[in-house]
């Protein structure tokens, strides 16, 4: 199990909760027909979020992948056209949540706390 968060393009996502959740489930089918480890496939704002968060939580794969396999901050990212899904280790819950949410606000992208019981959805 991992601690999962998702950031998203606020222009692409529905604002109503039930519609958003349906849209979310469509996004995580990962059927866009491209590699999901390359930030060049996503929006500029999401790519900026990714570049900055990857400094603190390096990716497991892709062009910015770390080879420090013992690092507890290694994170599995899936990068789509309108979303970036991040799976953090549970030991990093507080730091990951704080970093992901604050960077989402900074870069003007939405934030979805997938692993939260409430599943908080925030739009910029």
Question: Over all CA atoms, what is the radius of gyration?
Answer: 13 Å
Mean pLDDT: 95
Number of domains: 1
Count of alpha/pi helices: 3
Notes on the structure:
- The chain has helices spanning 17-27, 44-56, 93-107; strands at residues 3-8, 76-79, 83-88, 110-112, 121-122.
- It has 124 residues and is of the alpha+beta class.
- The protein has one domain (3-122).
- It has a five-stranded antiparallel β-sheet, with helices on one face.
- A hairpin with a 3-residue loop joins strand 2 and strand 3.
- Helix 2 (44-56) runs antiparallel to helix 3 (93-107).
- The longest helix is centred in the C-terminal third of the chain and has 15 residues, at 93-107.
- The N and C termini lie far apart (28 Å).
Key terms:
alpha+beta, globular, 124 residues, 5 strands
Topology:
Blueprint: E1 3-8, H1 17-27, H2 44-56, E2 76-79, E3 83-88, H3 93-107, E4 110-112, E5 121-122
Antiparallel strand pairs: 1-3, 1-4, 2-3, 4-5
């Amino acid at each position: 199990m991992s601690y999962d968060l998702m950031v998203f393009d606020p222009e692409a996502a529905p604002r109503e909760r039930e519609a958003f959740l349906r849209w979310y489930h469509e996004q995580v089918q990962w059927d866009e027909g491209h590699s999901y480890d390359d930030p060049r496939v996503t929006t500029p704002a999401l790519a900026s979020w990714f570049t900055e968060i990857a400094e603190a939580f390096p990716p497991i794969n892709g062009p910015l992948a770390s080879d420090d396999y013992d690092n507890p901050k290694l994170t599995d990212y899936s990068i789509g056209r309108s979303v970036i899904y991040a799976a953090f280790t549970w030991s990093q819950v507080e730091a990951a949540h704080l970093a992901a949410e604050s960077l989402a606000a900074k870069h003007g992208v939405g934030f979805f706390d997938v692993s939260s019981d409430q599943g908080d959805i925030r739009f910029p």
